[in-house]
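User: For documentation purposes, I need each entry recorded in a consistent format: the amino acid sequence on its own, followed directly by the corresponding structure tokens. There are two entries in this batch. Please keep commentary to a minimum and don't merge the entries.

Assistant: Recorded as requested. Entry 1:
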Amino acid sequence: MKKALLLLAFALICISAKTQTITWEKINLPYKTRVYDMVVNNKGDIFIVAKSENSYADTAVILRSTDNAITWHEVSRIWNSSVVSMTINNRQEVFLSNGGFWKSDSTGTIWNEFEVGGINLSYSKIKCLGSDSLLVLGVTSGEGGNNNILLKTPNLGLSVDTLYFEPYCGTTITTGVEFYPPNNIFIAITDFPMMGMCGGVFRTQDDGLSWTEIGLSDQQISGVTMTEQGNLFVSSWQSLTPNTSTPGIFILYSGTNTFAQCFNYAFITDVAVNSSGYIFASFNTYHGTFPIYLSTDNGSTFAPCSDEVDGIFRLYCDKSDYIYALPEYSENFIYRTASPTTGNNKKVINTHKINVYPNPSYDKITVEVPQELRCKKCTVAIKDINGKTLFRDKKFFENNLTLDVSAYTSGIYIIEFSTQNVTFREKIVKY
């Protein structure tokens, strides 16, 4: 198992209601660090916020990659390394919370701090509504105990409304805040075991004038995500009432008022759902390894879709349906699927099966046709990182293939050889 973790990429076939092959790869980071959160903008630029490489410094660093995670650049450092949440608005400006609040420009290179309500919030989660409107869910300290609070600002903190306030609620953590148009706001609050029953999922449809408790007050909620269809997915690490309830993954379907449980398992740290409705679940027990699990049939069945890895605490699905997995502990890498996780039942072979040289290249590349495809009719294609096909040819291949990429702009591309049943992929870099 340790040997497997040293590989740059690893794959395992998931057997579920629909067979789906997921190939995962390791994205190397500049140094060993704990990654707290991440976002990917519409151009494919990746932003991660992580603890400083100096483990004694109470600062966090913001790293950005503009070349599909080949290189990373530090764009800012902020005080207080306890970053909880990162989000992005429709102008592609990035926001993060760490007790205070920070915002980038549209390039991600300039960061400024701003206030929301003039208070510091621990365990704060933020959600962008359009451009300058934000929902902020967090915990404040009061004389009688902790207070759970949801704030809304339409103008980056210049004016603030309190939509939800629950005082003196034990040792709670705000797990997530989600919005579904036109007026549905959901908040998820969890409590530590033996500290009370203050948690659960709550919904307002009138901008905070009234709230309805949807359920899961008996669960230690670990992750929340909303799909484009308005379905709310919630993961639970463990039950707060183990004699009467079980943890797992729960779904609140759009237009309903009751959660349905689709996965009965403990120690789930997060849930992510792609545009095809595939459900990914991560685990962490603090004393062992777990694979990432996948369901391709709306939660009816789950099966492993990765090797066993040390604990994952966060999953992220970008607009192109790549899934990212962030380790719980300090590492010099994060995991990502090697290709978008949309519905595709072909067998995908590990990327290192194709030999391409020179790579990187200025003009021409030579591709060694995989032995399995020689003397067979297959399709060769070159795609950009967004999946757009730039070149395609279908014929019998017997020998190595030379392709001219001189007309392409500098960047990352994917070369594919495929038949009806199998696909070989490899990244190429054009200077």
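Entry 2:
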Amino acid sequence: MREREDGGWKVGEGEMKNMAKCQIFNIRYPKSSSQGFTIIELLLVVAIFFAVAGFAPAFYNRFFLQDAVVEAADRIAGSLRNAQGFSLAGKGSLPWGVALNGNAVVLFQGNSFATRNTALDRQIALPSSVSISGLSETVFARVSGMPTAPLTISLTASGGVSRSVLMNSLGVVSRE
């Protein structure tokens, strides 16, 4: 290459042929006679897929159990707050309460679950994979909203997944 009078560069004919041969960014591989994947590559991919798929159910099962316990805790805490709110607001002529009935929480109006007005019951279904202990029945006093007693409700699922819903003597509900 030679410098031109205007400051540019002039390429000679022989140099042009050499430059055409030098392809910096275009790397070419030797052509193979076959196209596609080999059987070894396919078997390797399938083996990796099944190895990952084999571990997935354990992780998903744990996730679903944790989700079921959290959902049950949220529903119980919400039911306690609703019953307390209805009693504070004086909705109806009797206090409101919450009781565990089978695999559901029942929001009821009455002095006790046994003497409640069944027409006003609100059933809140809980996930069947969760077992609950510590909740039988609690009633909130009208106007003050104070519960009959503080509660510690334990929720557990298989695999050691657990959570607690606490309610103190003032009726403040928290989840742990």
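Summary note for entry 2:
The beta strands are 2-3, 9-10, 96-101, 104-109, 122-125, 131-133, 137-140, 151-157, 161-167, 173-175.
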